[in-house]
Amino acid sequence: MRTQRELYTEKRTVYECERDECPQCGKPLMTAYTSGWKTVQTMSEVIMIAEQPKRCKDMECPGCASLLRSVRWQQVAPRWCTYGYDVITQIGWQRQNQRQTFSEIHYDLQARVQISETQVRAIYTYRYLALLACHERQQMKRLEAIAAQGGLWLSLDGLAPEGGEPQLWVVREMRSGITLR
Question: Distance (Å, rounded) from C-alpha 157 to C-alpha 180?
């Protein structure tokens, strides 16, 4: 059985959708519901957040079925994650730029965030790398232009694992220096 984390905070914030008019028909929006409270750990504090998405009041509008969520609520932490983007970024930075192991990252973070070494590994694998892949998609137009000028020159480099870590493979485009995977 897992030991429950005890996170106490007095700071509670409800984020309401910032839009007032339906993007489909221009009529006013109404609050659809208030979500349950979500506890989020950031590098500096523990906060509880909730959101109030909106939908169109006009039941005939095609936009009535879709919810418009708060942009500010989505900027605090990913959905289904109790760690803020700053924690995710810190883990990725320490792992990729400072070449730290997961146990070193855990040791550094545990003074500021309640987190286990297993959670550090999971956040890096399932959150940080997914965000990194989204960032890489922004390079697609540049890569297509390079490919049209004579093709892509790809390099594949494998890094030896350290202490039971999985092997890491890196794929780069040589002329631009863009890391693909």
Answer: 12
Helices (H), the chain: 71-74, 85-96, 102-109, 117-122, 129-136, 140-148
pTM to 2 decimal places = 0.69
- What is the amino acid identity at position 58? D
Do 105 and 43 meet the contact criterion of CB atoms below 8 Å apart?
no
Beta-carbon neighbour count of residue 10 at 10 Å?
7
The rounded distance, in Å, linking the Cα atoms of 154 and 38 is: 43
* Inter-residue contact 105 to 116 (CB < 8 Å): no
Determine the pLDDT at residue 164: 64
The neighbour count for residue 95, using CB atoms within 10 Å, is 21
CA distance 45 to 48: 10
Who wins on pLDDT, 114 or 161?
114
Summarize pLDDT for 37-69 with one digit per residue, the tens.
999 999 989 999 999 999 999 989 887 888 899
Question: 101: closest CA among 167, 162, 160, 170?
Answer: 162
